[in-house]
Design the sequence.
């Protein structure tokens, strides 16, 4: 299982922080690189790429790619051309695949940045071939997701048309690889093997983070982890094998004691049952903490770590602020100016997500632009 670093090393120290900062996102690039090496080790026969779409899941495309390159990663996946152009500037020598495929008319711009589209239809193969010079492409097969990719029964036709291009990868994507025993996984592998048989000498890729852990080990020639690199748990049925990468700290701006019956926040969703010590922190939904983490009757609310003690959100998450019940926190930690932790070693991404009624991927990719960002170990 993952090695947990002493938390103190990563936590922004109150005395050294800029007084203007109310929220700090710390990205541990050494942990990121370690996670990449862990994934590489789990798929010994395969190359380990990295999915860095959506600004590297919200953690910053440029620093993340630099750290992964230094760790030895040579193949990257982005969603679109614009991300690809940024990625190309960071890694002039890398192989960069664009998962959107070929948007009509985008061929010239893809080619100019030496980006390789993941083509998902016969039409896309044709349009890409029309650029001339047998351009490189991934061929994306749909093994059950119904989102992207050629139907498996078009594999023969795809192989035929692909003579006018240079296929460098055949790929497909799992629907529910995070469910270890889903029958669907085996069916998708079968379907992919059918399509792949038409592209015998071309490297194949099927595994996102969770799929690397499936009993079938569908690693093929290249694995494509994203989430696990950033500290997400690719095995929700077991303890997280990855190191935490993102740490989110917010500052206490105000504290007070309220009497029984007093309400907190917009729409008075929460009121005190007893005398309660509360603290307001300088982070809200505009920073990416979902409003779904608000505290209303009958649902678990978000939590923050205050002096090592988990303190629940109370009332509604507002644009810039969240109010915490700090009754159980050490007094000296629950003071104006002190820092609390919203994400880190103790509060993992999945934890924050389930308390907000969403998935960890969304928590990561929404971490807002208003945070100060610190990169460690890059
Ligand atoms: C996003 C994505 C991945 C990475 O998935 P994770 O679950 O984040 O590891 C891999 N392949 C494709 C096609 C994707 O869209």
Sequence:
């Amino acid at each position: 299982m993952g090695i947990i670093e002493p938390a103190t090393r990563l936590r922004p120290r109150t005395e050294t922080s800029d007084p203007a900062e109310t929220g700090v996102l710390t990205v541990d690039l050494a942990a990121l690189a370690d996670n990449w090496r862990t994934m590489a080790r789990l798929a010994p026969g395969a190359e380990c790429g990295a999915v860095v779409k959506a600004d590297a899941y919200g953690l910053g495309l440029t620093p993340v790619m630099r750290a992964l390159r230094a760790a030895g990663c040579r193949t990257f996946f982005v969603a679109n051309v614009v991300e690809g152009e940024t990625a190309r500037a960071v890694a002039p020598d890398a192989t960069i695949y664009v998962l959107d495929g070929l948007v009509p008319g985008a061929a010239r711009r893809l080619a100019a940045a030496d980006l390789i589209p993941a083509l998902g239809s016969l039409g896309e193969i044709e349009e890409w071939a029309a650029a001339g010079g047998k351009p490189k492409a991934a061929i994306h097969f749909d093994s059950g997701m119904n989102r992207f990719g050629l139907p498996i029964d078009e594999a023969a036709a795809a192989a035929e048309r692909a003579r006018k291009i240079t296929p460098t990868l055949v790929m497909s994507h799992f629907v529910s690889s995070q469910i270890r025993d889903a029958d669907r996984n085996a069916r998708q592998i079968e379907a992919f093997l059918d399509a792949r048989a038409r592209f015998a000498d071309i490297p194949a890729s099927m595994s996102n983070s969770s799929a690397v852990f499936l009993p079938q080990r569908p690693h093929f020639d290249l694995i494509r982890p994203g989430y696990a690199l950033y500290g997400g748990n690719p095995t929700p049925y077991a303890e997280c094998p990855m190191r935490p990468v993102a740490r989110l700290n917010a500052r206490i701006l105000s504290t007070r004691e309220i009497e029984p019956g007093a309400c907190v926040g917009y729409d008075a969703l929460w009121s005190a049952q007893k005398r309660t010590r509360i603290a307001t922190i300088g982070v809200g939904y505009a920073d990416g903490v979902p409003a779904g983490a608000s505290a209303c009757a009958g649902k678990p609310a978000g939590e923050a770590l205050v002096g090592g003690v988990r303190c629940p959100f109370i009332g509604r998450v507002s644009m810039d602020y969240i109010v915490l019940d700090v009754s159980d926190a050490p007094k000296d930690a629950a003071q104006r100016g002190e820092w609390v932790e919203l994400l880190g070693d103790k509060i993992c991404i999945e934890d924050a997500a389930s308390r907000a009624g969403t998935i960890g991927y969304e928590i990561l990719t929404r971490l807002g632009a208003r945070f100060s960002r610190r990169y460690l170990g890059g």
Observations:
- DSSP finds ten helices and 20 strands in the chain.
